[in-house]
Amino acid sequence: MKEKEVLARKLRDEIARLESRKNELSPVIERQKAVSDGIKKLSTLLESLTAINFQLKTAHERKERAKTIKAELIDLENEIVSLIPLTEKQIALGQVQQELNSKIAVLKSSIAQTKKNMKLAGTHGICPILNGVKCPQ
Description:
The chain has one helix at residues 2-124. It is mainly α. The chain is rod-shaped, with a radius of gyration of 55 Å.
């Protein structure tokens, strides 16, 4: 029986020691849980900040791209403005070329008629230079 009493006392002492240890560790466990919750919140916040940073980076890249496109557009508009007088000049030159081609066609026709008249001059008495006029004989 004495052994049982000693064993019971040891068990009571062990239980008391374990309860004391449990009471000592309880605030530490609570702090550990609070720290773990804080870490989870910070981790979520970090993920959100990372996503926001990515969106900011993308927006900045798009803004830079828009600036580049706008500058290119301004350059193209300036080139178009500088080409307008050249196209007008080209149109005017085209009209002059048409007029010259018409005059050349008239001259070629006149030369052909004169050559034809020169052939006929000897046989019909027609003046080779003045169309339809008879040369004095």
